[in-house]
Design a protein that fits this description.
79% of the residues lie in helices and 2% in strands. The chain has 196 residues and is mainly alpha-helical. It has a two-stranded antiparallel sheet with strand order 1-2. Helix 2 packs antiparallel against helix 3. The longest helix is centred in the middle third of the chain and has 34 residues.
């Protein structure tokens, strides 16, 4: 009986932490938004998706980002893009979690240098993949699922312009913020027993 209670307590704790991360994702998008000249949204919401994956694992971190940033889309007047946002943020979290926890095991005992190095690698993998995945998903969305020639052409333009400064700068800023926050929070959270 005690084992079940402990498992339920940990599950509830993880859900509450995921809720907090979803709120941080929302705030990172809603409070600090900017639209670049190329139409790319620049925000720090993805930093909290990555941080959530570091702290909670890929599934919970990805779901937190998916919920928080989809809510930000809906509340910001971009409800039509919320389903795509949900998918892309979930994928970011899953990739970061896979690299950080399954490949590198960053929540285990390692030197700070090892953890920082793999945190950077995990963030680059998740956010780098998103640079290609998000416009590709948008193209598929508006070509196959909800045909709209103008929006499909816009997605192709974004895919071709992946190397533009705004997309890469957005990914870089979010990766740096996530790694710095994780490096600062990890020792205290580990000591308190809140690590993934």
């Amino acid at each position: 009986m005690g084992r079940v209670d402990e498992r339920n307590r940990r599950q509830l704790q993880k859900l509450m932490q995921a809720g907090l991360m979803a709120a941080l994702c929302y705030v990172g998008y809603a409070v600090f938004p900017a639209i670049s000249a190329s139409g790319t949204k620049i925000h720090i919401g993805n930093a909290f998706v990555v941080l959530g994956a570091y702290l909670l694992g890929g599934l919970y971190g990805g779901l937190a980002g998916a919920v928080g940033l989809s809510a930000a889309d809906v509340m910001g007047g971009f409800a039509a893009s919320a389903p795509r946002t949900f998918i892309t943020k979930l994928v970011i979290g899953l990739i970061v979690g896979l690299v950080a926890h399954r490949v590198a095991g960053i929540s285990k005992e390692h030197t700070p240098g090892y953890v920082a190095r793999w945190s950077v690698i995990a963030a680059v993998c998740g956010l780098g993949f998103n640079c290609f995945f998000e416009p590709a998903l948008k193209y598929i969305w508006y070509t196959l699922l909800f045909p709209n020639a103008d929006k499909a052409a816009s997605a192709v333009k974004a895919l071709v312009a992946i190397t533009t400064y705004s997309t890469l700068i957005n990914a870089l800023i979010n990766a740096v913020i996530a790694v710095v926050l994780y490096s600062a929070l990890r020792p205290a959270l580990k000591k308190a027993g809140y690590m993934q």
